[in-house]
Amino acid sequence: MTVYWNDGVHQTDFLGSLAYTSDQVAASSLFYGPFNNISGDFDNYLSSANLDAQRYFSAFLLRARQSGHFLSSWADLVSRWNTYQTTAIVPAAPPGSQVLSQNLSNLNNINLFNGFVSGYLDATGTASNFTGDWSILNTPPSVISSQSFTDQTNASVNPFVQAFNKFLSTYDPNTMLPDNNNLNVIDGNGLAGSTQAMQKFLGSWQNFMDTTALIQSPSQSTNPTLFAHVSTYEAIYTAFGPKGATLADFTNRIKQFYTSEMGTYGYFLPSQSLSRWISTLRAENHLTGVASSSLTGNDSQNILIINRILQLLIRIIQSLQNVGIAQANKLTFYTRFQQAYTSLQTQIPVFLAGQAGAIGGSDQAAKDARGELNSSFNALLADNLRNLRGLQEDNAKKAQADVNQTNDAVNQQSDMVTTFIQQMSSLTSTILH
After folding, report:
1. Whole-angstrom Cα distance, residue 360 to residue 370?
2. Maximum distance among all alpha carbons in the chain?
3. What b/e readout covers 301-322, taking b as 16+ CB neighbours within 10 angstroms?
4. What 8-state DSSP symbol labels residue 45?
5. Residue 251 pLDDT
6. Can you state the angle between helices 196-209 and 50-66, rounded to 10 degrees?
7. What is the pLDDT of residues 187-241, one digit of tens each?
8. Which of 102, 167, 276, 402 has the CA that lies 20 to 30 A from 254?
9. What DSSP letter does each residue of 71-111 carry, written as one string?
10. H-only helix segments in 158-232
11. Residue ranges per structural domain of the chain
């Protein structure tokens, strides 16, 4: 079973899902941790501020991309970083830095290596002597006692190196590194460049190492508080493993799983192997009640279809309700328009004797003029206002009909959602009875 992420908007794999989830634990030292003491790698020949060393590493990453052959492994990084130090940094010692010695026989990357390893250990809840979360893998019969996290001479079986090599195999420098802005300035004058490339590289490494699962109880890790709410292989084994299994049974089984993962995928991180651990336990213990149904395969993907149907139905109802609100507002507008024309009708003037002007006199001509105005002009004006009000009445009736139709549609969709939920509830009750 492969775990995919689908929240109804984003569809991606495990690593991509980290951008949309909030339960993972990120080791705080991963981002700048590798460079807290990187200037110590220069002590034998360059008195350089730590910020300068970070700028140099940023330039190194950009130069590696520029070469067309980006870093392929931890060994490749160490080798090319050494070469870069000797060929680019020392000859271009920045103003204000003092070249202490041109003898590079003591050149090393101990601080760089230890920085990366410290972030790796923080993220896995493990110490370099295999205490902490991974201690269960180092108890008799031993699995990893000869594969030290901090031993660079045994890199072919080093758990950190293997995880880092996997990270590099997934890393795309063309999209994950910034442009080569001021590249010559960076490694030609360490006091002036940017550390952005280093930040982006370490940010991607941090995402790769984000923690969503441990092997043992968080209390066994190096930071129980940090990992208090993550899933554990031990708890999943208790839930899906053999009935009555003991801690010794779990220890033996997780060691077998570790060996299998290393042999098959070349590295092991609990967070990224979790779905395979669950799938393995289900198969071993014949937990196939769901897997043999119509949801066989990627269960989470298929079940999400039901959630998406519900979400879409709810959105349809919300959209129809918004349409109904707009139509109701339009109906209110037409009603007020009618009221305005009615108000104008009450304001039609009546011409009477005695008012100012020629038509206010008592002679016959004035009487005829007043009669003509009151009977013809006012009647025409009243008819026009009634006709205009009638148009708005028709518009209001149409708007009312639209509102009624929309309300009927909303009720129909609501009934559909209610029926769907009731059916799903009945099916769930039947399955779980």
Report:
1. 8
2. 130
3. beebeeeeeeeebeebbeebbe
4. T
5. 93
6. 80
7. 554 444 577 888 888 888 888 888 889 999 999 999 898 888 888 999 889 888 8
8. 167
9. --SHHHHHHHHHHHIIIIITTTPPTT-EE--S--TT---HH
10. 159-170, 173-176, 183-188, 196-209
11. 27-210, 300-432
Report yes or no: 121 and 217 within 8 Å, Cβ to Cβ.
no
**Rounded distance between C-alpha atoms, residue 428 and residue 16, angstroms:** 31
Average model confidence (pLDDT) for the chain?
75
Sign for the CA dihedral angle at 81, 85, 87, 93 comes to positive
Q: What is the mean pLDDT of residues 246-260?
A: 93
pLDDT tens-place string over residues 272-304 = 998 889 888 888 887 654 433 344 444 555 666
Q: Provide the whole-model pTM.
A: 0.58
Return the axis-axis angle of helices 378-432 and 299-345, rounded to nearest 10°.
Answer: 160
Measured at the CA of 153, the angle between CA 121 and CA 256, to 5 degrees, comes to: 55
**Rounded to an integer, what distance in angstroms lies between the CA atom of residue 164 and that of residue 156?**
12
Q: Within a 10 A sphere around the Cβ of 230, how many other Cβ atoms?
A: 19
Q: Is the pLDDT of residue 327 over 60?
A: yes
Which residues have a Cβ under 8 Å from the Cβ of 276 and sit 6 or more positions away?
Answer: 1, 261
In the block, which residue shows the tokens 């979400």?
311
Q: Which two tokens stand for residue 84?
A: 């870069």
Separation between Cα atoms, residue 209 and residue 15, nearest integer Å: 9
The distance of Cα 155 from the centroid of its chain, to the nearest Å, equals 33
Q: What is the pLDDT of residues 70-128, one digit of tens each?
A: 999 988 988 888 787 767 655 555 444 444 333 344 455 677 777 788 888 888 999 88
Q: Annotate 386-402 with b (16+ C-beta within 10 A) or e (fewer).
A: eeebeebbebbeebbeb
Please give the pLDDT value at position 101. 38
pLDDT of residue 168: 94
- The answer to whether the beta carbons of residues 58 and 181 sit under 8 Å apart is no
Residue 74: is it exposed, middle or buried by C-beta count within 10 angstroms (0-12/13-18/19+)? Answer: buried
The owner of tokens 């969503």 is 212
